[in-house]
Amino acid sequence: MNGVRVTAGLAKVTLGRACGHAGGARRLGWWSYRPMSSVPAQESACTDFEEILTPSGGVSPLQPLPLPGPCPGEATGHPHLSCAPWVEEALLTEARHNESEDAFVVVDLSHVEAQVGLWKSHLPRVRPFFAVKANPDPRIMAVLHSLGCGFDCASVPEVAAALKIGACPVRDIVYANPCKAPSHLSQAAADGVDLMTLDSTDEVAKIGHLHPGARCLIRLFVDDSASRCTLGNKFGAQLSDIPRLLAAARRHGVAIDGVSFHVGSECLDPCAFTNAVGVARHAIDVMSSFGVRSTIVDIGGGFPSNPALFAPIATALSCELDHQFPALSFPHVRFIGEPGRFLVADGVTLATNVIGRRVVEPTVEDDEHHVMYFLNDGIYGSFNCLLHDHATAVPRVLLQDGRVPSQFACPPHPSSSLWGPTCDGLDCIIKDSADLPSLDVGDWLAFEGWGAYTVAAATTFNGFSVPERRYVTC
Ligand SMILES: Cc1ncc(COP(=O)(O)O)c(C=O)c1O
């Protein structure tokens, strides 16, 4: 058997696949890279991000656990999954030996690392600050921190999570919630988190009162109509608001350091990003005419996780940044971004167990059987994204009767639906035509690309627990 490392809590399993990661530290322009295997769980506070790559070792030795691999003679390569082989192996191993049948997720930390590499190669001038809200997993955050990323936090608990994994409050955190609770603002001041966004004169007053040392970015309204989830209905100052905001900042002694924007989550139109950069440039010119010198442009999040969709957006965006902010004319401006979904969506696969089945007999109106399958995760758990994130669930049969299904085995059952485990009729994952073969209690379904805005907003309603995590790297 070769290669995957599965970790759950402190227990780690090495299944021995060769890994292609760089063995030592290497420079990558504005940030630094250190392979995740050398990252201690707790960094000391306030390392310069140009210096954090100092190789330091420090991961505790792996403790092998006796996890068996695939059944003898079984074909490698699951016919229905597109995830990495080490993820597939972890899914199968865990599902076969999960005695409690609980739902679980497999987190591929090497995918997170690869996404950072992709970002760096396409947007070399922009330092990513991971939007913690997308998935506040401490292991993911530790990997991102080790790769030189900062954190976009929207609340004190998110700030605390970033500080816990060693983020520097001054350099590694942007408090990117334009409307902060007064108590959270005071705590941010106490924690030394200075960089934050605002879009109203009331917020300026609040910050002046509770966090006079803050450095603020004006969150600008930009067109978010090309995105999956819009944000502009809630946040964003118009260009015409800028003079008022600057006057308020002067009155309350608040420093304005630049601008931020967000084109909406999962925006697929490169023009939305490039137009927003134009708005940012315009805003900076206006601010400059009022004597305010901008040093930070925060391009927000909204990037799709699929590299084929990300690449054209990032290429156009990078060109536009160079066009609107040529390095020679704007040497004092640095760029940050707040990617959430892009970094974590596709590195996580959810595995759920079929815990029940109900066959609905044909009726006068409907002359075929309908099969309802009940899973042990649902709308109140990690499928909350169906409601909150406009997501669509695509089930893959992971294990049928304990075995990997063959590619052509059973044709889909004509009519089936998928339901969560709670007693609520709203707890429906797929209402009609789940496009599944005939399943039995105990079979497993996988949902790939389940890492953003999923577990982050899951509840334990009705007593059902949030899926456990298993971590793998290539
Ligand atoms: C202020 C802010 N930054 C970043 C993000 C992350 O967006 P995405 O996951 O689309 O990259 C969000 C998402 O809501 C946000 O509100």
What's the number of extended β-strand segments? Answer: 22
Weakly predicted, low-confidence segments: 1-75
Determine the number of helices (DSSP H or I, runs of at least 4 residues): 11
Gap from first CA to last CA: 13 Å
Mean pLDDT: 85
- Roughly what percent helix? 25-40%
What composes the largest sheet? 10 strands, mixed
Coarse morphology: elongated
**What small molecules accompany the polymer chains?**
pyridoxal-5'-phosphate
Please compute the radius of gyration using only Cα atoms.
24 Å
Structural class: alpha/beta
Share of β-strand residues:
15-25%
Strand-helix topology:
Elements: E1 5-8, E2 11-14, E3 26-28, E4 31-33, H1 85-97, E5 104-108, H2 109-122, E6 126-131, H3 138-146, E7 150-153, H4 156-164, E8 173-175, H5 182-191, E9 195-198, H6 201-210, E10 215-219, E11 227-229, H7 242-252, E12 255-260, E13 265-267, H8 270-289, E14 296-298, H9 307-324, E15 334-337, H10 341-344, E16 348-360, E17 370-375, H11 385-388, E18 396-399, E19 416-419, E20 428-430, E21 444-447, E22 468-473
Parallel strand pairs: 5-22, 6-7, 6-15, 7-8, 9-10, 10-12, 12-14, 14-15, 17-19
Antiparallel strand pairs: 1-2, 1-22, 3-4, 5-16, 11-13, 16-17, 16-21, 18-21, 19-20
Helix pairs in contact: 2-3, 2-9, 6-7, 8-9
The structure holds pyridoxal-5'-phosphate.
